[in-house]
Predict the structure.
Amino acid sequence: MKRIMLTVAYDGTNYCGWQIQSNGNTIEAELNKHLSELLKENIQVSGASRTDTGVHALCNLAVFDTNARMPGEKISYALNQRLPEDIRIRDSREVEPDFHPRFVKTKKTYEYKIYNSRFPNPIERFYSHFTYVPLNVEKMKQAAAFLVGEHDFKSFCAKGAQVETTVRTIYECTVEQKGQMISIRISGSGFLYNMVRIIAGTLMEAGMGKREPEEIPCILEKREREAAGPTAPARGLTLVRYEFLEAKPVGAK
């Protein structure tokens, strides 16, 4: 028995998120199905980040155990021949039998894209959130700066989330504009349910003038979901980077 780690990229438009659900197809379900067919055994992958319906990823991670003789680095090539075109394995490798990316210190980076213009761009419709309301990027930058550091992010967590603690560390939160596209990049030790999308919704309110950047510390202090802004639509969100800060897997670069 050996453990394989996959680096998975996907367009989440047509999927009900990562985790298997009864109401629609998921990334996890597709991986289990095609890996089981490929390796001729029942395969159940375990993912590092359970992205929501419509969220995209360039580098989500998953591990699974197998008795197959196929070398770990070859699985990506064979699996990509079977997967639908909106899911691709960017890397596969054997790791230690007890390794799981969810249980080691990592830094995840998400990007939320906003297309800010008079009219929508159909080419960007699946990968960004459109708003015609002019956004003040400088105000958004000022608000984002208050989120950096270790805080209790309960105000930025969807209700009903079952977690031991809502304290998280944000290493970096930046807002940049290129033409009509505004990108919010957030790097952290981990994220609560809908946390990045709620942050994006709150920063957009700052950009619209609906709240002042200096309100962010008060929102954090209240620890109430109602204190923060709306949850931004899923299609603008992409998991863009996954870094190991310790305990790198076997063969990791």
